[in-house]
Amino acid sequence: MTTVLTIVVVLVAVALFLDLALHRALRAPRLPGTTEPADVGVHAIAVRLLTANDRRLFAWYCPPPAADRRRPAPALAAVHGWGGTADGLLPLARVLQAEGYGVLLIDTRCHGRSEDDTFASLPRFAEDLSHGVDWLRARPEIDAGRIAVMGHSVGAGAALLTGSRRRDLVGVVSLAAFAHPEEVMRAFVRTWGVPYRPIGWAINRYVERVIGHRFRDIAPLSTVARQHAPVLLLHGGRDRVVPVRDMERLRDAARAAGCAVQAVTVPGVDHEGVDPETGTSVIDRGADHLRAFLAGVAPVRAMTAAPDDLAAPAAARAGRAGPVIDEPGRAPVRA
């Protein structure tokens, strides 16, 4: 009996050790934000908003240049990739704010200046992005009927997952999305020098259990075929992390499902969205495609709500309490 008990204790200890080790190995690196909006010529306000599990997210809100509740503007909510921050998307805000859009750049949980949670995952990126959409919908200067979402890498997968769940979006923009998390995890485990079967396969099943979702259900290859709005796929031609072939597979899956999709390869750009030789970003080189796409799904000049409705409190129009905003020098207040 003592021997059996000892074996059980050892197995439990090993399981707990492996659980802790995997959590540490799969944890996203938390990098501090190093760029301020003014550094790239963007007018932005630092805000905090609530997400799932009562966690608070940091975000840069870049209001439309001609904010007017009687003529609300379209907007875009965006999230970074794994280990990234909202600061990295500020060049995007510069381009879109100049065109008349409002932009919300979100630090997802466990990233940047947002609060921690038990873990980060693609579905949690999507939860945070969706809360960002709700935040924008409650703003009086934003047209709730003209909001799009965007993401980079894992964030792109989150944008596609959000687009498959919500019917109130007008467009989804994906930067360097991978096709399937099973393939990404298989490549990741390979860097540890362990065989995919049985060890890598078991790790993937463990990750599925932790995040509460099967990879096949949240895979961009699946969600891109369940979109309710047009999709723009942008991908760097020199991406060595996620091959361009992944974008082509996503495009083909969307078309096969009858979803509206555009796919653009941006020459010379790597996975981080930069040309390593010139420093040119995917935002700069893909700006015309992005502008044209958003102009088609969320034109700046259109007006879709009556002035009397827009004059009503934003929270009342949204049918819920207003979002929490942190303003410089003030305690958090309700919008």
TrEMBL record:
One Pfam family it belongs to: Hydrolase_4
Serine aminopeptidase S33 domain ranges (all copies): 72-191
Keywords: Aminopeptidase, Hydrolase, Protease
InterPro entries in the cross-refs: AB_hydrolase_fold, FrsA_esterase, Hydrolase_4
Source organism (scientific name): Roseospira goensis
A molecular-function term among this protein's GO annotations: aminopeptidase activity
Name under which the protein is recorded: Dipeptidyl aminopeptidase/acylaminoacyl peptidase
